UniProtKB/TrEMBL annotation:
Pfam families in the cross-refs: Abhydrolase_1
Residue span, AB hydrolase-1 domain: 49-299
The UniProt record lists the keyword Manganese: no
InterPro entries: AB_hydrolase, AB_hydrolase_1, AB_hydrolase_fold
Residues spanning the signal sequence: 1-20
Name of this chain's protein: Alpha/beta hydrolase
Source organism, top-level taxon: Bacteria
Keyword flag Signal: yes
Gene3D superfamilies: alpha/beta hydrolase (3.40.50.1820)
GO MF annotations, alphabetized: hydrolase activity
Lineage: Bacteria, Pseudomonadati, Pseudomonadota, Gammaproteobacteria, Pseudomonadales
Sorted UniProt keywords: Hydrolase, Signal
Amino acid sequence: MRVLILLVALICGLPSFASARCDVTTPTEIVVLGEVRLAYQSVGSARDPALLMIMGLGGQLIHWPDEVLERLCESGFRVIRFDNRDVGLSAWTGSPPAANLAYEVLRYRLGLPVAAPYGLRDMARDSLRLLDALGIEQAHVLGASMGGMIAQHVADLAPERVLSLTLVMTSSGAQGLPAPSPALLELLARREAPNREVAIEQQADLLAALGSPDVSDDRVSLREQAARSYDRAFNPEGVQRQLLAILAEPSRVELLNRLKVPTLVVHGTSDPLLPVMHGVHVAAHIKGSELKLIPGLAHRFQDAFKEPLLSAVLPHLMAHRQLDGHWARL
C-alpha cells in the first residue's frame, strides 16, 4: 500500500516537477572557447539526453520559441540553445580582414570564390567544443537554416557524438537549386542602420518577408520581436561575417552522401528563402533519412506552425532517445 501511495504521489506531482525542471528563464551562461565566447542556456536535467539547438543566420538563442523548448524539455530532453559566434551575447575575437559584402555577393552570383574570415565548419567546431565544455559526450542535434548547415558539419566531424540529426528549413548548398528573390537577399544583407528605430523597422521588414503567405503578420508584433532582438544585442558586422561563411561554402552533397546518423529533414512548402526543393535535395542525399514537409511553413517559427513542427520533430527525437532508465530524470 505504501508503494502504491508513493507512486500516486509521484505521478500527481509530475506536472509541477516538469515545470520546475523545464524553466526557460534559467540564466544565460558564458563559456570561453579560445577565440570564441559563447552564450548558452541549458534547460532541463543534466541526467536527460542532451538536445543541442543551432540557430540560423543572425539568429539569437531567444529566437527559439520558449513554448517549443518547454515541450522538448518536458518530453525528457536537456535542451541547450546558444548564440552562434558573432551574434547575440556571443563573440568572435579574431581580426577580420576588410570585406565588401556587396562585392562578395556579386562574386557568389558569378560562381567565383568568396572570401570569409571563418567557415561553417569552424562554427560546427564551436558547437562540439560547447558540448565538451558542458561535459556532454553525445547529443541530439537540431539545426535550423544556417544552423542546419552547421549541424551537417557537426554530424560529419563527429558522427559518434550525434544521437540523431534534425535539419529544419536548410540546404545542401548545391548549385542549381531554386534561389530566393534578389529583393529578399537584399533585405537579408541589409544590416546597416543609423539608429535603433531604423534597425527595428528593417528587421520587421525581413521578418515579414520570411513569413508564410498563409499567416497574416501583425506589424506591431513584428516590431516587438525586432526590438527584443536589438535590445539584447545588435552586431550587423557579425551577421555579415556569418553570411560570408555561408556564401563561401561549397556544395555539401559529398558530405551528405557519407552521413550515417539517424536524420530527419523538415521543410516548409512555402519557404521563400530556401524553397522546398532544398529540403527535398538534402533528404535525397542522406541515406535512410526521413523527409517531412509542412504545408504553408515558410522560413520563420510562426505561432501557427509550432504544433506542426513539434509533431514532426518529437517522434524522431523520441525514437532515438537514450536513457539510463525510465526514472533517471525524475
